């Protein structure tokens, strides 16, 4: 039962007025999400930010396991690290276990390009591209993203769906909804502070995977620093 890595959801546009998403790196700390499938929690997703002057390191971690009668049918483990300096992506590294298929990505800045490997195969990407890890509000301005698990460029189109109410815990919060379509497809809702409130993917088996913010306080309005745009 493959679950992840092929996304294809396109939700209807809303009538709400468009409001720009604030840009910037979140403050140092851990942001956590629960992963849901068909009403059951199947995993966790976390993003850890660490600031050091003009340098920022971002660690992302995904753990998903789909089980039936105590038997694990599908498992997805993903760890990634992004190193940023002065608003530029300097290094991206990820390891993925996609139900037994191993994927290893390493990209390092070399002038105006990102060079590296995916499972030992060479990669060469433009230096202004960013990973499709969704935490970066600059995502909504992109026409291409790095697919996090394979390190390759994916052409995308971003559609503004306007403001919507999103359930976080027992409360509803206002968030700005964007549809990312094209070769990398997902739905993402950004809160007033530019942080991700919710992400929805469509799995290969056509089930929905919903990533929901675990801590309501993180969805509260707050000022944000300069955008992370290489």
Short description, anyone?
The chain is mainly beta and 230 residues long. It has no helices and 15 strands.
Explain what the structure shows:
- With 230 residues, this protein is an all-beta fold.
- It has one domain (29-216).
- Helices cover 0% and strands 59% of the residues.
- It has strands at 29-37, 40-52, 55-68, 71-85, 88-98, 101-110, 113-118, 121-126, 130-131, 144-146, 153-168, 171-182, 186-190, 196-202, 208-213.
- Strands 8-7-6-5-4-3-2-1-15-14-13-12-11-10-9 form a 15-stranded mixed β-sheet, with no helix packed on it.
- β1 (29-37) and β2 form a beta hairpin.
Descriptive tags:
disordered N terminus; 230 residues; mainly beta; 15 strands; single chain
Helix/strand layout:
Elements: E1 29-37, E2 40-52, E3 55-68, E4 71-85, E5 88-98, E6 101-110, E7 113-118, E8 121-126, E9 130-131, E10 144-146, E11 153-168, E12 171-182, E13 186-190, E14 196-202, E15 208-213
Parallel strand pairs: 9-10
Antiparallel strand pairs: 1-2, 1-15, 2-3, 3-4, 4-5, 5-6, 6-7, 7-8, 10-11, 11-12, 12-13, 13-14, 14-15
């Amino acid at each position: 039962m493959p679950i992840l890595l092929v996304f294809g959801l396109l939700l209807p546009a809303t009538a709400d007025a468009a409001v720009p998403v604030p840009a910037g790196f979140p403050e140092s700390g851990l942001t956590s999400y629960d992963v849901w499938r068909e009403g059951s929690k199947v995993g966790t997703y976390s993003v850890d930010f660490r600031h050091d002057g003009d340098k920022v390191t971002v660690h992302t971690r995904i753990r998903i396991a789909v089980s039936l009668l105590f038997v694990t049918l599908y498992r997805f483990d993903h760890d990634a690290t992004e190193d940023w300096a002065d608003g530029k992506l300097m290094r991206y590294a990820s390891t993925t276990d996609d139900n037994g298929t191993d994927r290893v990505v390493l990209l390092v800045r070399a002038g105006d390009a990102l060079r590296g490997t995916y499972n030992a195969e060479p990669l060469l990407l433009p230096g202004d591209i960013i990973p499709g890890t969704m935490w970066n509000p600059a995502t909504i301005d992109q026409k291409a993203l790095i697919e996090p698990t394979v390190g390759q460029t994916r052409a995308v189109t971003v559609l503004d769906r306007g403001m919507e109410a999103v359930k976080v815990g027992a409360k509803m919060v206002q968030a700005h909804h964007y549809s990312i379509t094209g070769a990398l497809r997902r739905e993402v809702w950004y809160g007033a502070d530019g942080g991700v409130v919710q992400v929805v993917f469509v799995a290969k088996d056509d089930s929905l995977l919903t990533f929901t913010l675990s801590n309501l306080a993180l969805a509260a309005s707050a000022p944000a620093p300069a955008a992370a745009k290489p």
